[in-house]
Amino acid sequence: MRELSTRFTRRRLALMVPLLAVGLTATACSAPGSEQTAPEDSGAPVSTELGTDPITLEMYAETGFPLAKALADEFTKQHPNVTFNIREDQFTVIVENAPRVLASDNAPDIIRLPTMVDLVKDGLLKNLDPYFDAHGWDKFPASQLVQLRLTDGGAERGTGSLYGMGLGYSVTGVFYNKKQAEQVGMTQPPATIAEFEDLLAKAKSADLQPIMQFNKNTAGINFPYQALQNQFGDPAPIADWIFQKPGATFDTPASLKAAQTIEKWAKAGYFPKDANAIDYTAMMGEFQKGNGLFMFNGDWESANLDKNMAGDVGFFLFPGETAEAKNVAMSAPNTFGVGARAKNADAAAFFLNWVHTNDKAREISVNVGGSHPGGPADLALPPVTEGTVLAETLKASQQLGADNGAVDFTANATGGIFAAAITPEMQKLIAGQQNPEGYVKAVQAEYEKELSR
Amino acid sequence: MTSALGSVPAGSGTPARPGGADPRPAMRPHRKRWGRVVRWSGWLWVLPALAMYGFFVLRPLVMTVQYSLYRWNGIGAATWVGLDNYVTVFTDRDLLKIIGNAFVLIIFFSFIPVVLGLVVASLVRRITTGPGGTLVRTVLFLPQVIPLVAAGIAWSWVLSSNGLVNQALRAVGLDGITRAWLGEFSTALPSVGVIGTWIMLGLCTILLVTGMSKIDPSLYEAARMDGAGPIREFFAVTLPSLRQEIGVCLTVTIIAALASFDIVYISTSGGPGIQTTVPGLEIYRLAFSQRQVGLASALGVVLMLLVLICVLPIQRLTRGEKP
What we know:
The structure holds two protein chains of two kinds.
Chain A: H1 2-28, E1 55-62, H2 67-78, E2 82-89, H3 91-103, E3 110-112, H4 117-121, H5 129-135, H6 142-145, E4 149-150, E5 161-162, E6 165-169, E7 172-177, H7 178-183, H8 193-205, H9 222-231, H10 236-242, H11 253-267, H12 280-288, E8 294-298, H13 302-308, E9 313-316, E10 329-330, E11 333-338, H14 345-357, H15 359-367, H16 389-403, E12 406-407, H17 417-430, H18 436-451
Parallel strand pairs in A: 1-2, 1-3, 10-12
Antiparallel strand pairs in A: 3-11, 4-5, 6-11, 7-8, 7-9
Helix pairs in contact in A: 2-15, 9-11, 11-18, 14-15, 17-18
Chain B: H1 2-6, H2 24-67, E1 70-71, E2 79-80, H3 84-91, H4 93-124, H5 130-145, H6 148-158, H7 164-171, H8 188-213, H9 217-225, H10 230-241, H11 243-258, H12 262-267, H13 279-289, H14 293-319
Antiparallel strand pairs in B: 1-2
Helix pairs in contact in B: 2-14, 3-14, 4-8, 4-11, 5-8, 8-11, 9-10, 11-14, 13-14
């Protein structure tokens, strides 16, 4: 009898303890996230002085791009009381981590921000308007910062308060292999899309790879896709769509025509036939090995290509349908923001201002980052060596500025659009598993789904 | 837990000491108390582990169930949506396809390795002793030792358009069937499956070889005397004796198939399209890149239930006494 009761007690205990634990935890927690409230901007006056007290700025930056580190080192050299503690992660990891990192007690002072709408909605980013006034950023061309503005609550981008600054302002276009260009009779960059397609056909018949592009884990063919989309119609609706303006749609004739062109190019074999299995690193490797006449990419690779293919690479902005068409290109700031819970917000803003205005910093932005340093329009561009890709990308970014043709990346429209729609649908499109109409509709459907959440 | 308790001596049944008055009545209360203390001290020993288990396993489990009832981006305020997320899991065409992909992988992660493992184990059983046996076992077990991420990277090279597989095909004149195995819609999922087969085969073989070495040789002798050939011997003696080992193999590999993440993430990232996306990868994407923590949690709970539904019957069927 005792034996039985002992066993019974044991069994009961064995059941009871975990159940108790489960019960306790279940009752202990309330609705998730409900205690989080958006921090109010205190409206306290901001300072443009750095002071002399020792400061450690916490920075969260992208790995593989040495620009942030180079700028931080130079800043410490000029202002020895400020040191940096830099944490680096891959781009996609930052996208995933940013909300939690910014919501934590050790929120970084300066953080790389791929998409900012959700972060502003959750009150995780500092409104930089007071610094805009204090540092006189109104002297910067307004178009430079327009992508970094959000209305209150993050409902819409492109207007409202400033929430970020660029560590360089990137421009995308087409890199080309000069030797292969010569082989297909290209003496100067194509002036129209038709000329460009003509070169593709020539490359194909010369047994060259016309375009080297990745499309594996993130849709690299969205680069040529958006280049076409920007040119097949007014780019304003695309910008509206990216900025989440009410009523904006992806389902436009320009988007459809771009999808049809991509489908045509894929069928003609202008992309690598295993593009869906090629990732970004592999694409860069193949292009540098001489496999590919063209590559759609951004100026952040200029310094790299100048080093590894010195003198063999050129760059041009993607042409329009006519030779007179204005320059339009995907171009975005290498966005950095200040955490709402940052401990050294003033110093962080001072650093962002310094990056745009200090001669040495601007030089680093160009030579290490490969991009336009931004800043006041009247500041001269740092000199670069003629004949380099860097010189060409910098020239392209000035052309783009003159035409006011910068359009953000469609991939930045919402936090999930790239992973959830653009990437899988683009992979289907080039493999013949999706048609152009279906592509455009699928992207728009996912967009609406995300905005409704 | 129970085995720790089982070793605690019971309070009764101690033999009486010889000679003199029976000491039991006097000793009894003390012993009883002591026995109880010993019994409780068992819990004391497992308490740290239990606390860790409760905090790191049970608590997240309960929280996952809780989150699955909300629409939540992981940071801001959550909205109660009841079972909506579960309805989405069972009605969204993409999510259903993703769950289906995991079941396709069971064929590659589970059935093929177990069947192949039986064949290989039967073949290598005779050379398991001596240096040859050690070598064979090491080679077979190697995939288990290599981190899955490394295996994924190595295999994506092997299967790339200029990889070893295509080079071999070209060398024998089969240029026509070379392709980007992991990049094409028709071949991506089976290719991921093959990586899984490679990883799981070693584990299954080693388990089965171990199981075979425990089979009483007299059974084989008897079978042979009854005139059984090697094949008959296999089905009459080997296979029934390996019931428990096969059960373990199936359990481990089915869980690996349904919960797969690393191999897929590294080799294809779920592409092309969503051809190779599996629930594990989708849960991670939903939670961290699309910030739908509620839906991700619901899919997580569904995945857990699917694993249990698949594994529990196997446990039941294979647990029985060995014949």
